[in-house]
Amino acid sequence: MTRGASSGRRLRVLAVASGGGHWVQLRRVVPAFAEHDVAYVTINPSYRADVPDARVFIVRDSTRWDKLGMAILGLQMLWILIRVRPHVVVSTGAAPGCLAIVLGRLFGARTIWLDSIANVEEVSMSGRLVRRFAGLWLTQWPHLASEAGPEYAGRVF
Amino acid sequence: MIFVTVGAQMSFDRLVGWMDDWAERRDRGDVIAQIGPSDYAPRRLRVVPFMTPPEFRDRLVEAEIVVSHAGMGSIINALELGKPILVVPRHGDLGETRNDHQVATARRFSAEGLVRMADSPQELDRGLETLIREGAEARIAAEAQPELLARMRAFATGPRGSQAP
């Protein structure tokens, strides 16, 4: 399934986050892909100002309780994946990231879920939902990491 | 200037009201508050519902002290600029957010010395007093911890098959 990459090749990376803290945390991990082509998906057009040189797709925000919203978001994400064909999908949440990880995996991308640092006591619901689809499933709290659960590799600060 | 921010998603009038009272008591006309989707009628605060990221950044840069809900966007942005920040967590049982995760976050980061936490008007008063006296406690680097970046990079570029959990 993996259209993964040998080192040295330029990868297409799709970086996905909803608003507020999710977006701020995403921007702090994108330097991991500095040598690659990063396109963003988020929910607020004003965030374009944060990444002026990058391609940015705006999607509708939703929650898992809003079925119509999730369906529209799913279609938008599908369209973005068809256009970008990413090798890597990385997300810090929430609903848009969740869908991007699931669909991205089905498209053969390598998928990275970084659960928000705000989830101190347990992994988020979105995080648990994407577990099977995230190739790399990360928490930012060592006490939440385990052999069968998420991995801890550091924090966004 | 003191900058108050509650994020864009939900109002947080409990914090806004506390700060309005504080500004009135201290006779401070330089408290600016971003209050989200709220129709709070301020007495002393200068309020604005939403800000674009550049506007928000400018306010943070100008601020002597930041007072915020315990949202990670606000906390991280303030810490990147080395601003002293006091956080008031939203409470799930008051309908201020869906659960008490902000209480847990605020406790953790105040224990680490990155922020100061207040959960009552009295604590807010004391916290502000201390911050005005002592200034910033911490500043964070511009990007995530190097180990985290390295792990993500290795996963993205590593050999085929390394992705299976």
Q: What is the topology?
A:
The complex is a heterodimer of chains A (157) and B (165).
Chain A: E1 12-16, H1 21-29, E2 37-42, E3 55-58, H2 67-84, E4 88-91, H3 95-106, E5 110-114, H4 125-130, E6 136-139, E7 151-152
Parallel strand pairs in A: 1-2, 1-4, 2-3, 4-5, 5-6, 6-7
Chain B: E1 2-5, H1 13-26, E2 31-34, E3 46-48, H2 53-62, E4 65-69, H3 72-80, E5 85-88, H4 101-111, E6 116-117, H5 121-134, H6 146-157
How many individual β-strands of chain A?
A: 7
Q: In total, how many domains does the architecture of chain B comprise? A: 1
Structural class of chain B: alpha/beta
Quote the average pLDDT of chain B.
Answer: 94
What is the typical, i.e. mean, pLDDT of chain A?
94
Q: How much of the polypeptide of chain B forms β-strand, as a percent range?
A: 5-15%
Domain count of chain A: the total is: 1
- Corresponding CATH architecture of chain B: 3-Layer(aba) Sandwich
Number of helices of chain A: 4
Distance between the termini of chain A: 33 Å
CATH superfamily of chain A: Glycogen Phosphorylase B
Shape of chain B: globular
Pick out its properties.
heterodimer; A: 157 residues; alpha/beta; Rossmann fold; 19% strand; B: 165 residues; six-stranded parallel sheet; 6 helices; 13% strand
Q: Mind explaining what this structure looks like?
A:
The complex is a heterodimer of chains A (157) and B (165). In chain A, strands 3-2-1-4-5-6-7 form a seven-stranded parallel beta sheet, with helices on one face. The longest helix of chain A is centred in the middle third of the chain and has 18 residues, at 67-84. Chain A is an alpha/beta fold. In chain A, strand 1 (12-16), helix 1 and strand 2 (37-42) form a beta-alpha-beta unit. The termini of chain A are far apart. Chain A is built from four helices and seven strands. Helix content of chain A is 29%, strand content 19%. Helices cover 42% and strands 13% of the residues of chain B. Chain B has helices at 13-26, 53-62, 72-80, 101-111, 121-134, 146-157; strands at 2-5, 31-34, 46-48, 65-69, 85-88, 116-117. Chain B has a six-stranded parallel beta sheet with strand order 3-2-1-4-5-6, with helices on both faces. In chain B, helix 3 links the parallel strand 4 and strand 5. The longest helix of chain B has 14 residues, at 13-26.
